[in-house]
Design a protein that fits this description.
Blueprint (H helix, E strand, L loop, with lengths): L3 E5 L3 E5 L3 E6 L2 E6 L3 E6 L4 E3 L1 H9 L3 E5 L5 E5 L8 H9 L3 H26 L5 H10 L8 H14 L10 H23 L18 H6 L4 H9 L11 H9 L4 E4 L6 E3 H18 L12 E2 L6
Parallel strand pairs: 1-5, 2-6, 5-7
Antiparallel strand pairs: 2-3, 3-4, 7-8, 9-10, 9-11
Amino acid sequence: MSWRSVVISKPAALSLGHEALCIAQSGQKAQVPLEDIAVLVLESQQITLTGQLLSALADAQIVLITLGKSFLPNGCLLPFLPHSRALKVLRAQMALSEPAAKRLHQEIIRQKLANQAGLLARVKEHSGSEFLHRLSKAVRSGDPDNLEAQGAQAYFKVLHGADFTRQQTNWLNAASNYGYAVFRAAIARALVAYGCLPALGVFHRSEQNSFNLADDVIEPFRPFVDQCVINMPRPSDDILTTAQKTQLIGLLHSDVALVSGPMGECSILVAIDKAVMSLVKAFMHGDGAKSLPALVLPRLVGKDC
């Protein structure tokens, strides 16, 4: 299992050599074995890299994330369906019934609300956590009561203050969006690796979104980003720093516990893999299954980011 996230924040020339990422930067050279890398982030606008390296990154199932002029993630390179049974999984994904999709969405939103409640209980001395726990237990198939939105409204007001909204242009939202984008790319990588089509979502179904399924799976993982953000010092100029971006990327390697499946802790990257594996099993059950297997989803454990 790959365990490194590599961030290139200064001008550099990247190439492939001996199954490793070769970095030439400021007159110095370094190498990182491809098998160690899960995510490669190109932060500087002055980076060159070879086509051979791009191909090798795809073969090694490494997510390459690019940043735009706003220095927020704006694109990623994903491997092209390397799964040995991609067509079988894709057919099962496309054949998922509407009731089954609603039950999956119910499981996802339940765990998202439970993780949000867990974070509030940890950092805000239980303020608002009981309300979110009650919402979590009350979610019905397909969330027709939109308890996810009710929970989000209460959650962010407790976490960031009564005047906070996700639409504001500020450091809090910039940091959150950066972390969410990194998680989304890592989830898309896992989906492709297990033969899923990221554009075909369970609940998210926008025709203009190539990552609808990743936007479904990410929901219970968002509180891990939120936990990291609230523990970061806010810069005086309100601009997200390179060190903070690196910290958010490194969050993929922090420990979580799973709510189902084998007990014990694992990294968020491993939890993402297990969640996607469970999702594929749900797809493969088909309409004849009496019940879908519970998604393997994480809960907050360990030290704060």
